[in-house]
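Pipeline run #58 for the internal structure catalog. This entry was flagged by the ingest filter as a single-chain record with no existing model, so it goes straight to prediction. Upstream metadata was stripped on purpose; only the residue string is passed forward. Reviewer on rotation: M.T. Logging verbosity set to normal.
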Amino acid sequence: MSKKNRIIVPLSVFILSSLFFLTLLETSLRISGYLVGKSRRQLTAHDMKEYSGRINILCIGDSYTWGGLLPKKDSYPGILQKMLDKSGKKDVNIINWGVCEYNSAQSLDILRDQVELDKVDCIIILSGAANLFNLIGYHSQAGILENMRVYKMVKVLSTNLKSRLMQLKARLKKSGPEDEYADGPRPVLSRTDGLDGEIRKKISLAWSYTNNKMYDEAEKMLLDLDRENPEQPEILYGLGHLYRRLYDSEKAEKYLKKAIAYKPDLAPAYVDLGVAYENMEEFDKAIAAIRKFLELGADLKEDKYFNRAFKVLGHSYECMGDRAESIKYYCMYLEYEGVSSDYSVYRAIAQQYLYQSRYDAENLTKTLNNIVRSNPVMKKDKNITSFIRYFENKDKWEKRLEKWIYADLEKMIRICRQNDIRIIIQNYPLESPVANRAIGKIVSRYSLPLVDNLEVFNNLWKNGGQKENYFLEDGHCTARGNRVMAENVYAALIRERIITDEE
């Protein structure tokens, strides 16, 4: 065998074997998808036959319809059924056909393959959020490669792996409160503070102890100074800052408030007070303290420590559920910090972005690019430049996703209208910008009745409702949250005269 053949033959075997393996994997994935879909379609037909002769309302969607990890009776369709039964409308049957993590294409498949549509009177649709991570059925804007099951599987695995690596990288930074705010401000001393030279030297030494983590020495010196010189705001502030660094937030609050009472324009004390409240999870107080600091007009570029004020605001708004304000202040933190290797900020912006609608990927990219342009040093910061590229690509991808969701919803509408089925569309109760934008456009285009869950829940927060009472940590509704959704749908059914208001 020639030298050329010794290379070509093994290479050909490798290529053919790889093609055979990929073909086998592709075929297996397609058969699995078909069998899963077939079993679901058969069950749907059975449900329709069982409830023949009644007013059948089919609820289609993802885990928000299914009910997440809650018992099926606590899903919004389950609660809606109980509400109808209690009001004497026992001839109305609610069928929960939500499937966890189903995207709009899969919901469309349920509708397309439904052989009993003549028995359905109304369909309630809530679909599209899962399209962000579930690419099954994505073909309307895809090429041959993107439509292959193997390609989609690799794409999803790659996306999830990148997300895991980003989270791991952030955790490895170990950026707990001690690390985040370790470098304290310079001691706040002025020539008009009434302190003699010896006391000023001791205060400066105590600050040096604090910044070098010699906390016992700093505490002893500052307490001695406080006993000998009561009501001195600079000493009180030193103690407040020290206790904040030691996570003793109650003592920190006590001394910082005393310092501010004697010297209301002591700007750095408000930053430490904000951090102390943040550590105590009293986020409204943290925001108030930082806003007071900003009102004093301190020179933010004079001391890098002051930049932490924006991070406190970002985190506090994040914890209070105001995602857009959170992004705003995290971006301001990056702007004033100049160069940041704090991965927790990038991760926080990415997470908050998913659940708000003020910023789309395009204007968030523009905001971040403006930050870089105003600070040339940041152009060399790989963290923020990579982060911007992520959102630049995200913008393109989201536009394609939105177009995909819209197209699937449009096909669902046509199927319903061809079968004389009434339609009600819901939007998502928590911010899901891509899906909710597509839903809003389709509702406007076809003049469809909309159950505006997002507005209802936003009004709840404005009136003092606590988000943890209505949503689980994973973003799905609690039974109480599902009751609100059920009430919204119930009102829409009456408003559209699909059911009567009479008992």
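catalog note: Residues 42-142+405-495 form a domain with the Rossmann fold fold (CATH 3.40.50.1110).
catalog note: The first strand starts at residue 55 and ends at 61.
status: ready for reviewer M.T.
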